[in-house]
Amino acid sequence: MKKVLFIAVCIILFSTTAQSGEDFHPEKFHQSNCTGCHDSKVYTRSNRRVNSLPRLESQVRMCDANLGKKLFDDDILSLTQYLNDNYYRFEK
Ligand code: HEC
Questions:
Q1: Which CATH class name applies to 20-88?
Q2: Largest CA distance in the chain
Q3: Pocket test for ligand 1, best of 37, 48, 51 (most atoms within 8 A of CB)
Q4: What is the pLDDT of residue 21?
Q5: Residue 56 near residue 90, CB atoms below 8 Å
Q6: Ligand 1 site: residues with CB under 6 angstroms?
Q7: Could you say which residues form the signal peptide (predicted)?
């Protein structure tokens, strides 16, 4: 019985930490991973630091590194896109 429980826990852990290109949902990922240190208000505050699309991408990379998620490039890009579409709205 304990063994079954152990395996179940492993599956849950694996499925929540393994984020791969195909089924990456930026909104969900953001909701569950990116709101621990700051909420989405930092993206719209008047003195926000990010002021261009390339800077947004490097900030996303930095925060991903802090988080230790090691996202793939594709996922970084879709997360950047998501933030831009919803908050920053830089010209592409
Ligand atoms: C380990 C804590 C931590 C986590 C987790 C985190 N961030 Fe951050 N983030 C920060 C800090 C600290 C700042 C700088 C806040 C400041 O300047 O006041 C920041 C700032 C930002 C900014 C820039 C805001 C601005 O001023 O324009 C963006 C964009 C951002 N984070 C995106 C993300 C994304 C996307 C994730 C999820 C992958 C994430 N963050 C997760 C700590 C974190």
A1: mainly alpha
A2: 56
A3: 37
A4: 47
A5: yes
A6: 33-34, 36-38, 42-43, 48-50, 56, 59-60, 63-64, 66-67, 79, 83
A7: 1-20
Q: What is the pLDDT of residues 46-73, one digit of tens each?
A: 999 999 999 999 999 999 999 999 999 9
- Give nearest CA residue, ligand 1 atom 9: 63
For 24-37, what is each residue's pLDDT tens digit? 999 999 999 999 99
Secondary structure of 48-88 in HEC code, one letter for each residue: CCCCCHHHHHHHHHHHHHHHCCCCCHHHHHHHHHHHHHHHH
- DSSP label of 13: H
All structural domains of the chain with their residue ranges: 20-88
Does the pLDDT value for residue 43 go beyond 50? yes
User: Is the pLDDT assigned to residue 38 strictly greater than 50?
Assistant: yes
Tell me the CA–centroid distance for residue 5 and ligand 1, in Å.
35
